[in-house]
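User: Could you walk me through two proteins back to back? I'd like the raw sequence and the structure tokens for each, with a short line separating them so I can tell where one ends and the next begins.

Assistant: Of course. Protein one, sequence then structure:
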Amino acid sequence: MQTMWLSGAEWVAVLRIGLGLWWLESWRHKDKKTWFTGGGIGWAVGIAEKHRWQFVRAGFDLTVKPRPQVMAYVVAYAELALGLGLIFGLLTPIALVGGLVLNLIYFVLMIHDWAEQGQNLMMALISVVVLFAMGWQVWSLDDALGLFQ
């Protein structure tokens, strides 16, 4: 593949790093004090209670609602780990699949909020492209360590 400035693999690495920065920004912009004291999950409870799909309400009530503090930490630090993993290219395929799953969860939970959906769909699309283009081939610790050859 012939491209301007960078090789195809390098452009995919740019996408990977950009996606990592996007996840890092998702973590950075959270008000941690409010988030970890129930603000983030409390907001999601209100969304889940009004959700149009019963399976989403039931799944949220079973998994997230009984553990608001634990889930707040899981969500926040998952976003941080995804961001760092993608930026540095460490365990990249795992980070891409994890990010795709998290985006799909956000997408389903926020199905009625179209402003939020654009971000989740775009991040999911980038994850799929980088995953299938094997975006860990250049500019990554995975490549330097010989992982996922």
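----
Protein two, same layout:
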Amino acid sequence: MTNDASNAGSEPLDRHTTGEDRVRMVARQLSEPRTANWIAEEAGWSHEPTKRVLERLIDDGILHRDDDGAHTTYYPDYRRQAMQEAMRLRDGEHTVEELTDRLAEMNARIRSWQNEFDVDSPNQLRGTLADETLETDEADRRREIAREWERLQRRIRIVGFAVREWDFLAPTTEPAEANG
């Protein structure tokens, strides 16, 4: 990629990042396993160099590879993502009380869906789509609620961890001691 005047009209992401940088950004934001082709397309870079970057990310422990399916897929270390998000929450502008209130709100929202649809999980809600009398708009609404329910469940785990480990996650100004 060149940085001459011919790129002046290209996307800002393209002008200020290399292909490798874009692959790294896409890979770190994955929320589900994806193929190298998908990642390459999202990053706007060719397949072979993308695969080389993905292999380096695997070597660095940032990504994992799954060769079990029809296509090799790559996915982030979800534990690392969760820990980083918990640290961002701890370091952010919210207090532990505000995060606790947010947890209560998310749980209340899930309970309202459980009561409204008489189900206990997002998949049980999806199972109600088999009702042939269900209008298309209502079916779409239930699919969207199931997706949001799953997203809230993930957020609850992360926010709950940040609240439980509030003191542990506190930023430190002391360098870590090397015990040998």
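Confidence is low (pLDDT under 50) at residues 1-14.

Let me know if you want the two compared in more detail.
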